[in-house]
Write a structure and sequence with these properties.
GO terms for molecular function: methyltransferase activity. The chain is an alpha/beta fold. Helices cover about 25% and strands about 15% of the residues. The strands form 3 sheets. The chain has a 9-stranded mixed β-sheet with strand order 11-9-10-8-7-12-13-6-14, with helices on both faces. Strands 3-4-5 form a 3-stranded mixed β-sheet. The longest helix has 14 residues.
């Protein structure tokens, strides 16, 4: 939002005490090019502005008389667009000569801040699989507490990505991923009723609907969207369904998200924080994901991901059994090799004897085989121990 210089003066006037300035609050607001210019021309007093400033990008092909570009920083023709665009202005608001070089701190870089319910260490590393969701074996993934999907609905418009027919959406094997939990299904205007139909076919009851109100670079409501047959769409809908009897933190969030638009089809980061607060510390999977969607604690599936990355050993084993020719990254986390187990077993023989040695060997074998899929490998390692 923008505040004029006169309004800003009236707000900050009570904060002056013997020439010092106290910041009334930590809310970050936005001020545009024109109002910043007016503020700098005000000679009544000198203040430090805590707002985020933008400056105009005037290129050789820019026609200032045309005004601001409707798409701003999401414009796909920035190098040739004749409208005005903006970029963050990190220059100090008060010159060093006016404030004194010793009293003016260096400008701090702006960093996006997001409230997370759990730390990334607690959530775990992100995992993803590049696959065709229509034919991928969902049963090897196990059960999830939360599913989020952003399907490529066919909306009868030219899009920069492929779409799926309605019948293929209805027959997706979503039920294999969940018996108790929540599903968050992003839908377009045309697919609103189709999305509700899919939820019912997959075994869910629709209980909520989340609205994402889209804002642009200058924190204004988008008035020229890229979708919509009759009206320009400035919002998106996410249907929330429930299956079974999951544990959910109720009534701690609202059903409206106001956030910036970024890359095509990229959803706001606030959505992931909202989901984590609703269903903390549960397994979560995102369908039709892209690399900009991968998040800590989430499994991502889609045909635009970079290869396969799995860190869960049990899941890696099931995936390799189903798709033996597909390379999985990163390299399998270190487990006791035959050589290391051989060395440790010789030390055990010097320490234990009889039944104690046999129990120790059994313990090593159990550590070596954390998953049933590694039973054959564990058997081979155990034979090495016994042969010594």
């Amino acid at each position: 939002m923008a505040i004029s210089s006169s309004s800003l003066a009236s707000i900050l006037q009570p904060c002056w005490q013997r020439g010092s300035l106290k910041v009334p609050n930590k809310i970050t607001s936005f001020i545009n090019f024109r109002e910043r210019s007016g503020a700098s021309n005000n000679k009544m007093f000198i203040i430090l502005c805590f707002q985020v400033h933008f400056r105009r990008i005037i290129a050789a092909h820019t026609n200032v008389n045309l005004g601001d570009c409707s798409y701003l920083d999401t414009c796909r023709h920035m190098k040739t667009c004749k409208y005005v665009h903006y970029e963050l202005d990190s220059t100090p608001d008060v010159s060093a000569l006016m404030m004194g070089a010793a009293t003016l701190p260096p400008p701090k870089p702006l960093k996006p801040q997001h409230a997370h319910y759990c730390s990334e260490v607690e959530l775990g590393e992100p995992q993803w699989i590049n696959c065709d969701i229509r034919s991928f074996r969902m049963d090897i993934l196990g059960q999830f507490g939360v599913i989020m999907a952003d399907p490529p609905w066919h909306i009868h418009m030219e899009l920069p990505y492929g779409t799926m027919p309605d019948d293929e959406m209805r027959t997706l094997n979503v039920p294999a991923l969940q018996t108790d939990g929540l599903i968050f299904l992003w839908v377009t205007g045309r697919a609103m009723e189709l999305g509700r139909e899919c939820l019912e076919l997959w075994g869910y009851k629709r209980v909520e609907e989340i609205i994402w109100v889209k804002t642009n670079q200058l924190q204004r409501i988008i008035r020229t969207g890229r979708t919509g047959h009759w009206l320009n769409h400035s919002k998106e809908h996410c249907l929330v369904g429930i299956k079974g009897n999951p544990e959910v933190n109720r009534n701690i969030d609202t059903d409206v998200i106001v956030a910036d638009v970024r890359e095509t089809s990229r959803k706001p980061d606030e959505m992931y924080s909202l989901i984590e607060r609703l269903s903390p510390r549960t397994r979560k999977v995102e369908l039709f994901a892209r690399m900009n969607n991968v998040h800590a604690g989430w499994m991502s599936l889609g045909n635009q991901l970079e290869g396969v990355r799995l860190v869960d050993e049990g899941l890696r084993a099931r995936f390799k059994a189903a798709y033996p020719d597909v390379e999985v990254q990163p390299a399998s986390p270190p487990r006791p090799s035959a050589m290391k187990v051989d060395s440790s077993s010789s030390q055990m023989r010097n320490t234990f004897s009889g039944g104690e040695l046999k129990a120790a060997e059994t313990q090593v074998a159990e550590v070596t085989a954390p998953d049933a899929a590694y039973a054959s490998e564990a058997k081979a390692v155990n034979s090495v121990i016994i042969s010594q």
